[in-house]
Specification:
alpha+beta; 10 strands; 7 helices; 33% helix; globular; Alpha-D-Glucose-1,6-Bisphosphate, Chain A, domain 4; 30% strand
């Protein structure tokens, strides 16, 4: 009997602690080991006569682990090809045709009746982003590398029984001819990571702000990475389908309801003039 199952026999062990241990197993263990642990935990919960919903959750975790281990590819990580899967309230959602390994790729495109400058203002206001970004608890800017480059952490809540996540990133704001790109990759300064969160792995994160006219803007949100640790497939599917849509909708609502968005960080950005199509 494993130490984890032995602990389950103790009346002093909380169920949430058990599942936290399962989540930790996903950091270092292979899928098969995670599934075996979930099976053992489920059996132990049955013997302890825990509530049926606990058993259901155990089975969901098992099948999530099983399905996430299927269809794995030996190709290199990366995705260039997308296919449209849904449109919700004007926001078009895509998924990668070449999903590989444990990476979580998604892309969403929305056209907003908002001037592009106000979207940039909202995105660079890192300290107040948690007021509107879904599941974001807080943001810490560790270093202002330059006026357009920042090292920062975003801390997100994650559904029970999983640990909350931290995105420790090096972000850049680039003004191009017809768009502004917010890009981010993993920071190499892991000593800045908070020990109370699991660290996500970001291969690519990009938000493209593309003016369509003086008061209309296209927003393209693309992500490729993994959330760190083990997350069942059904949770990943929810994140892929709901996450980018809710992000764009929440940002739009925040901007429309805010009178003042301009901050010192926005004013300090090095900006260049964009080529903006005339209003149709």
């Amino acid at each position: 009997m494993t130490p984890l199952i032995e602990d389950l026999k103790s009346s002093h062990v909380e169920i949430s602690d058990v599942f936290h241990q399962v989540a930790e197993l996903g950091i270092t263990s292979k899928k098969g080991q995670v599934m075996q642990s979930v099976i053992l935990i489920t059996k132990a919960l049955i013997s302890m006569k825990k509530a049926p919903w606990i058993l259901s959750l155990g089975l969901c975790l098992f099948f999530g682990a099983a399905s996430s281990s299927e269809g794995q590819s030996d190709t290199k990580n990366g995705t260039d090809n997308w296919e449209q899967i849904d449109t919700y309230e004007g926001i078009v959602l895509f998924r990668s045709i070449k999903e590989t390994n444990d990476l979580l790729p998604f892309k969403a495109i929305g056209k907003l009746n908002i001037a592009y400058q106000r979207i940039v203002m909202a995105l660079v206001d890192a300290e107040h982003k948690n007021n509107w970004a879904p599941k974001l608890k807080s943001t810490t800017v560790h270093n202002d590398i330059s006026t357009n480059r920042f090292e920062y952490s975003e801390y997100y809540t994650t559904p029970w029984p999983f640990y909350d996540r931290e995105f420790l990133l090096m972000g850049t704001v680039k003004y191009q001819k017809d768009r502004i790109l917010f890009t981010a990759i993993n920071s190499t300064n892991k000593h800045l990571a908070d020990k109370g969160h699991l660290l996500a792995n970001v291969k690519a994160l990009e938000v493209a702000i593309i003016p369509l006219s003086p008061d209309r803007t296209q927003v393209e949100f693309t992500f490729l990475g993994d959330l760190g640790g083990w997350v069942p497939t059904f949770v990943k599917n929810i994140i892929q389908k709901k996450g980018p849509i809710r992000f764009i909708q929440a940002m739009q609502a925040h901007i429309l309801n805010s009178k003042t968005l301009e901050t010192h960080r926005y004013m300090a950005l090095q900006k260049t003039e964009l080529v903006i199509p005339p209003k149709p």
